[in-house]
# Entry
Amino acid sequence: MNKWWLVPLLSGALLTLGCNNNGSAGNQPAEDGLADKYQSHFLVGTAISSWQLMSPKKDYVNLVCNEFNVYTAENAMKWQRIHPEPGQYKFDTADKMFDLAEQCGAQIIGHTLVWHSQTPDWVFEDDEGNPLTRDTLLARLNDHITTVMTRYKGRVKGWDVVNEALNEDGTMRDSPWFRIIGDDYLIKAFEFARAADPETELYYNDYNLNKAEKVAGAVRLVKQLEAAGVKPDAVGMQAHYSVFYPEIEEVEQSIQALIAAGVNVAITELDVTVLPQPETVEAGADIASSAEYEERLNPYTDGLPDAQQETLSQTYEALFSLFLKYDAHVDRVTLWGVDDGSSWRNNFPVRGRTDYALLFDRNSQPKPVYHALKRLIE
# Structure
């Protein structure tokens, strides 16, 4: 995990930990982590929460340094966090992720510049609360993209420029961006991003891209952006999956469709829930969806039985085998969280459940699925 940029070393707790040459924190060489095992095929990353960045613990830093070679801020770089008020930018939490990445010799994914969610209402309104004009919102969008990307220019592998612009049928989502600017808001966002940093990679990112209609919509967006001269470098498949769905053939067909469109594929937010899906909520990652808590929807509060551990391992093995099959075009697999305790799946789509969606348990110890993925590559 070689360092590829230089930033000031992190002060305080992280500084005292240090990293050795293979990217692990501490003085003793660590066993090869997951990223080391897969380094000739694709990057293996993780999403890091704001509280993990602001209150790092040594064991956590050791794990992140040793196991992953590309980091995504779970929330710290979203508009709501980094640009909460007009003219006010808060970079402190995001800066800590760059410090951690430098210390660990890891790369950074910028997430995300344009999204309908976790964006303050003021972005779309004038001082009287009325919707902005197209030109005013475009100017506001350009300012945000340029300011954020310029701060981290040369230090980011790539940016999720636009997140979740599609409906499930592949049509454009009726977001404030779409209503005020029009369907060319993606083109404008990619143009602003390319102007801000001509060298970084630019991505479109969405969930449920295993569905044929939705991936067809993503292919259409790629073609529109290409025609406008701002073709994405990759499309991000979020991959919030379950041990029950989707069929692996669906995922493969979507990867094939995106490759045929001329872009690489990034697996950007991978997790695999073992819990039942509420009947009232469509499978996916629409954070506006939710269901009431019921005991039957939370069956593993005392731990995950061996049979379910094995099913989880088999699901991850099937997915990683598929990603390896297309490793000429799948350049990154990012897990959406570090361990089960920090996974958003504990609270989506039902709050207060106990899920086991990641590779490390609530004590940050490797689970059977972790060892299965290591054996897969040996």
Summary: The chain is about 35% helix and 15% strand. Confidence is low (pLDDT under 50) at residues 1-28. The two ends are 19 Å apart (CA to CA).
